[in-house]
Every structure is written in C-alpha cells, then in structure tokens.
C-alpha cells in the first residue's frame, strides 16, 4: 500500500527570511488601503500575485513601487500590531516554531513619529504577537543598500542598542546590483561587535561574486538567498565548509525571473554540496505563497524525500538565533514528525 506523504504544514521549522511589509495578507492590504484612501494598482487588487520580473532595472523599479505602495498603508501602531500578529498566525499555520522577521525601521519612521518610536512600536508588536500566538519571534534589522552607508551605521548602532528587546541580526536588502558590499563593512562590524548575526542579501539578482562579497567584506553567517552560488563549485565548498546558511526563497526566485520554473531553482545542487539552507517565503504579499509552500516546491519539483525535508527544517532551526531550549524542542518535534 502506498504511503501517504506527511503534511508539510505540520513539519516544525524556523522561518528566517520574511520581510515586514511583504508578510501582509492581501485582504489586510485591501482593508487598510480602503481605510486610508490609498489607490492600489490593479496588480495589488486582482486576488492573485502580480506579474513580476526584476532581472532588469525597470522590473525591479516596478517591484519596489508595488512594495512602497503597500508599505504606505501601514500608518499607525495598530496597523503594525495587526500585520505582525497576522504574520505570526500564518507562520504557526505553516508549522513554524520560530520567526525572524526582517525590517528597515527607517521606512516606517515618517508615519510613526521617528526612527526610535517606529522601532519600539515594531518590537512591542513582535513581543505581543509572540505572547499571543506562542510563536518564538525576533527581529532582524536590515539596512537599505540604496541609501548612504552612514545610514546603515546608524541603524547598526540602533539595532545593537535594542538587542535586549528582541533584535538578533543585521541585514542588507534591496537591489544587489546597486552599491558594493564593502561600503557597508563598518555597519556590519558594529552589528557583529554588538553580538548580532550578519545576514546580508546576496546571490539572487547578481551572481556568485555577490555571495563572495558578503563573506569577504561583511563576514556573513547567513546569506539572504545565495542561490547563484550554485554556479561556482568552489564557492559551494566554501559555504559548506564554513556552515554558512543560505536563506533560499524558491517562489521568490521564480516570481522575480531569476529562474524560469520552480524546478530550475538549484535546491538540489546546494543540498548535495552540503550547503545549509533555510527555506523562506520572502514577500508572500507579492509572491503569493508562504512558508510551507516552499517545502512543497522542494518535494514536488526536486523530489526531496520526507527525510531530506526534515533535514532542511533542522538546518533552518540550527541557523536561527533561537535560544538553545527552543532549538532542542524544535529538533525533537522534527524527529517526531518524521516518525509519524
């Protein structure tokens, strides 16, 4: 008798690559836009993910414009609390036991009374959502590589200052093709000296060289995306030998045109090379799928067995900033899922 596949929404896992505005439910965006009189383009109101392709400057600009419009609908502490609470609820539904949500608080400062008030509102919302849902949640503050590196240093100092309030890491997001990683080396040095993990984006819109830059210039312990490392066997060995985790977001890679089809995302290449991976949803609002769906891509399009999917889940947990007792419980729960 053929054995039924285990439910991937019940597989315990950690979610390490989820952007703040991009975590919003589409229905919430519609309600907030109506509340504030924000006109949404058809791409955000059609009930299905917008057609995106960001492999050229024009495509990235369109993607960023949609993101900015969605972010403009977050205007009050109550909106922030709702977004974070719903993101936590969605993660729990997908089997997540730990979430590190990524945010650039400067993007919300104009609406929320300044940079520090914005960050405190976000951290309060995360603490409340964690308490209400039982999901372990922390924050990764991300600088914007489209802005001046001095802005990143300010953010790094602020992130360190609030490390005892739930900030665990420091990232670098936006278009990898703009600026150089080494311009932000001082900001990452500040963050690392303050005990934060370094998790910059690299190796999605640009090739293996951007992953090497994250390692050499920013001393990354995790790489946001990193899939283009598959094009360089020596780089794969380096990532595997150093245990640097790639936060791979398959649906995002396809939606942005990095790969044509889900089966083209090099999950198997990274896995077979021994590179740790943490599958992530990136921006569900724009890409149309959440955490469990990324594991479904690995199963359906790359023939990952349940044992291999459990290994991916373990890698996500081990790469997280969760306390050891949380990791121990999640790893035991993964074993129980596999034994079921």
Helix content: 40-55%
Secondary structure tally, helices = 15
- What is the average per-residue confidence, as pLDDT, rounded to a whole number? 94
Class derived from helix and strand content: alpha/beta
Measure the end-to-end span: 17 Å
Number of strands: 7
The biggest beta sheet reads: 7 strands, parallel
List low-confidence stretches: none
Work out the radius of gyration: 19 Å
Strand order of the largest sheet: 1-2-3-4-5-6-7
Give the overall shape.
globular
Which percent band covers the strand fraction? 5-15%
Q: Name the helix and strand elements from N-terminus to C-terminus, one letter apiece.
A: EHHHEHHEHEHEHEHEHHHHHH
Describe the protein.
- It is a single chain.
- The mean pLDDT is 94.
- Helix content is 49%, strand content 13%.
- Strands 1-2-3-4-5-6-7 form a seven-stranded parallel β-sheet, with helices on both faces.
- It contains 15 helices and seven strands.
- Helix 14 packs antiparallel against helix 15 (324-339).
- It is globular and about 50 Å long.
